[in-house]
Write a structure and sequence with these properties.
The complex is a heterodimer.
Chain A (H helix, E strand, L loop, with lengths): L3 H10 L6 H18 L33 H9 L4 E2 L2 E2 L7
Antiparallel strand pairs in A: 1-2
Chain B lengths: L7 H9 L5 H19 L2 E4 L1 H16 L11 E5 L26 H8 L3 E6 L33 H8 L5 E6 L5 H6 L3 E4 L19 E6 L2 H11 L25 E5 L9 H16 L3 E5 L7 H16 L23 H12 L2 H14 L5 H24 L2 E5 L15 H5 L6 H6 L3 E9 L2 E8 L5 H8 L4
Parallel strand pairs in B: 2-3, 2-4, 7-8, 7-9
Antiparallel strand pairs in B: 1-3, 4-6, 5-6, 5-10, 9-11, 10-11
Chain lengths: 96, 474
């Protein structure tokens, strides 16, 4: 069982606003799911390595070089932004 | 032209013999969608203009007597979490309701190059999170066999579109069963390829270590043709691998079929159990050796799968912030978001549906300080044990046969009240994603007018072998 305070904390970390009613609903639902997940505690995994990814040999690093993009595509990316100024995304002030 | 009878090969023959043109075929499907999709609701977007343009190009090739590429004129529907340039891609989420894709997914570029005609984008559970399409942010899709029942999910729109003859074949994605279970519920063939066999570039990420794109078709041969058209290493997806098309010649008499005893559980639908056992009996009669095997960590599959999937999802879905694209409260006058944090909180509260919120929160919890070891890391360790179960089994057998789902298609509303009961729909399919293996769902019977499917699981990159075996049941 997780507490209402825990749900409130998780929701904030997840950047999802919840009403009081939703808090209660998700507390109940998440608790029942997490209780079910607890069966994993039955297995001893002390000496087991995790499998984060099925293919261990993958080379995921590349040179940090930006590819150039068609300016028309760049315009469309900016166009899709909810709030923009010239070629920038606009955000609310972070520092007061 | 009888749409039900058409396969990729028959389309090709008919086009070459000029029985119908690509444009005529495309128009026939578009008409059928207009007529029947009012009831089935498989499509979120119909791409008529694109389809007509592609069809005309195929007809041009034919009139010039040019060589026809393998998918020339084949009308295909695409799950709405796969990007098609210039077409809306919603993932059935309000947060992407007005988002237009700026590029083609690699699999889309490939099928376009091979002459396919894209009819539209199909419904799914929001961000592919669900097993019935009831979690779509727009509307549920109905099962063409029984409209009071779900088509399965999350690729429910793609499966229902094939079953309802609203397209000849479709593309779906499978993270824990999302191609195979709807294919099973709708009585069609669904292939989940080996992890990495098909590039994920342009597939909206849900759980990156599990997601795979694959075909949903009427026949195993069509699934093979589409799989071979879209597979291969792609520099845009570092996890993709080259999949050599292997020689599929084998004798059934030499095959060893493993049947895991843990996959025939209490409370399973009797009709499903009977049909699957009968299908296993059939291959045994043809001379294959059927061996009972054990996958001892089966009872841990669902919690392991969900912990990993929700953890990866919580990270992947952090990008929907109301700043770069999609639904946003950044300029809203009514609920005045005063700070950046408030923009995030309100955008995501209004943009995501409840199931997506549940999963993001579960993932956030499983990855948070103090719980990481107990939940996320623990699940990744158990994943190793589940993978080893299969590795051990495949030393003794060539293929593994199981049911796809413990029940046939269920009724609307039956599982939405209890989110956990929806999770259990993935009980026979998600182990395959955890182990990264290929598996096909093939229809084997109709019980009370509802389709039942058999799951055939193969060794890595043995898609052609499992599809060849699937043909036995057609």
């Amino acid at each position: 069982m997780i507490t209402k305070e825990q749900v409130r904390h998780i929701a904030k970390l997840a950047r999802i606003e919840l009403s009081e009613k939703e808090l209660k609903k998700f507390q109940r639902e998440l608790s029942s799911i997490l209780d079910y997940f607890d069966i994993l505690k039955k297995i001893d995994t002390e000496k087991v390595e995790p499998t984060f990814h099925i293919e261990k040999k993958i080379k995921v690093m590349r040179e940090d070089i930006a590819d150039s993009e068609d300016p028309k595509v760049v315009d469309k990316i900016i166009e899709a932004a909810p709030d923009k100024k010239e070629k920038y995304f606009k955000v609310k002030a972070i520092l007061q | 032209m009888e749409l039900r009878e058409l396969t990729i090969t028959k389309v090709r023959e008919s086009l070459l013999k000029k029985k119908f043109s690509s444009l005529e075929l495309t128009r026939a499907y578009l008409d059928k969608i207009r007529k029947d999709d009012k009831e089935i609701s498989a499509f979120l977007t119909i791409t008529e203009e694109l389809a007509v343009e592609q069809a005309k190009r195929v007809d041009d090739l034919i009139s010039k007597g040019a060589k026809l590429p393998i998918l020339a004129g084949v009308p295909i529907a695409v799950k709405d979490n796969i990007l098609v340039k210039g077409v809306r891609a919603t993932c059935a989420s309000k947060i992407l309701e007005n988002y237009t894709a700026l590029y083609d997914a690699t699999c889309i570029r490939k099928i376009k190059d091979l002459g396919a005609v894209i009819l539209g984008k199909t419904n799914l559970d929001e961000f592919a999170m669900g097993a019935s399409t009831e979690y779509s942010g727009f509307f549920p899709t109905k099962n063409p066999y029984d409209k009071e029942r779900v088509p399965g999910g999350s690729s429910g729109g793609s499966a229902a579109a094939v079953a309802g003859d609203l397209c000849l074949a479709s593309l779906g994605s499978d993270t824990g069963g999302s191609i195979r279970q709807p294919a099973c519920f709708c009585g069609v063939v669904g292939l989940k390829p080996t992890y990495g066999a098909v590039s994920r570039y342009g597939l909206v990420a849900f759980a990156s270590s599990l997601d795979q794109i694959g075909p949903i078709t009427k026949t195993a041969e069509d699934a093979r043709i589409i799989f071979e058209s879209i597979c291969g290493k792609d520099e845009k997806d570092p996890t993709s691998v080259e999949s050599k098309i292997q020689n599929t010649k084998f004798k059934i008499q030499n095959l060893r079929i493993g049947v895991p005893k843990e996959y025939f559980i209490k409370g399973m639908d009797k009709g499903v159990e009977e049909a699957v056992k009968k299908a296993i009996g059939e291959i045994e009669e043809r001379g294959a050796k059927v061996i009972e095997i054990s996958l001892p960590h089966t009872e841990y599959v669902i919690p392991t799968y969900y912990l990993i999937a929700v953890s990866e999802a919580s990270a992947n879905l952090a990008r929907y912030d109301g700043i770069k694209y999609g639904y946003s409260k950044v300029k809203s006058q009514i609920s005045k978001a005063k700070s950046l944090l408030e923009v995030y909180l309100k955008t995501r509260a209004e943009g995501f549906g409840d199931e997506v919120k549940r999963r993001i929160m579960l993932g956030t919890y499983a990855l948070s300080a103090g719980y990481y070891d107990a939940y996320y890391l623990k699940a990744e360790k158990v994943r190793t044990l589940i993978k080893q179960d299969f590795e051990r089994a495949f030393k003794k057998v060539d293929l593994v046969f199981t049911p796809v789902s413990p029940t046939p298609a269920f009724k609307f509303g039956q599982r939405t009240k209890d989110p956990l009961s929806m999770y259990l729909a993935d009980i026979f399919t998600s182990s395959v994603n955890l182990a990264g293996l290929p598996a096909v769902s093939v229809p084997i019977a109709n019980k009370n007018n509802l389709p039942v499917g058999l799951q055939i699981i193969g060794k890595p990159l043995e898609e052609n072998k499992i599809l060849e075996i699937a043909k036995i049941y057609e």
